[in-house]
Amino acid sequence: MHIEVISNVNEAQSERFTHRTAIVIDVLRATSTIVAALEAGAAGIVPVETVLEARALQTGGNLIAGERFCRKIPGFDLGNSPEEFTADNVLGRRIVLTTTNGTRAIHKAMRADHVLVGSLNNAAACARTALELRRDIVLLCAGSHDEFALEDGLCAGLLISELQQLSPSPLEMNDIGSAMLGLYKSAGTAIHEMLQSSTTGKRLNKNGSGRDIERCSQVNISGIVPRMQGDMLVQS
User: Fold this and answer.
1) Domains by residue range for the chain, with CATH
2) If exposure means fewest CB atoms within 10 Å of the residue's CB, which of 35, 67, 122, 186 is most exposed?
């Protein structure tokens, strides 16, 4: 099995996903939020790229949620903080979500046979599901403003580590994958500190969202694996 890591959404050409399983990573915060929403009992998450698309789908009891530049979009029901997606807010509801980078990355990965959502929170469960699908794997780091984001690279490295532990045979990976595995191993127990010091982490702290960093930095606290079915992410 081969694993390819793509460093940011701008590098994600559609042909790189054909006949593969894609795992989309946006640790701070879209993919962490999607995991939290499904864990809280949301019926599903419809990822869309634009604010206009989200507003157009504010029908039939759908909630609309999202952010631009780490801030909740005015007039939306929810932002992009995992702490907002509680059972009281989302149980049984369908959520239309748009974010600066994460939902765009999900749409970039749609050419894949299977699209999963990965985060530090659900890495082990996500790796297990990806192996069961028996396809080569592409890890798409959403990044930030079309550039590499440290937190997504750390998560890619964690996912590769989990895949290595679970796979019955050796895994091949591209050079970025090897580098991200090394980055994760070098982090040790300092993942939270590394997220705090990342560009996105600093921006979230400045906006008063420091608690989100703590939540998003926790490793393997969830067994939820979001998976695209049609136009919606549901629990696989």
Assistant:
1) 2-228 (3.90.1560.10)
2) 186
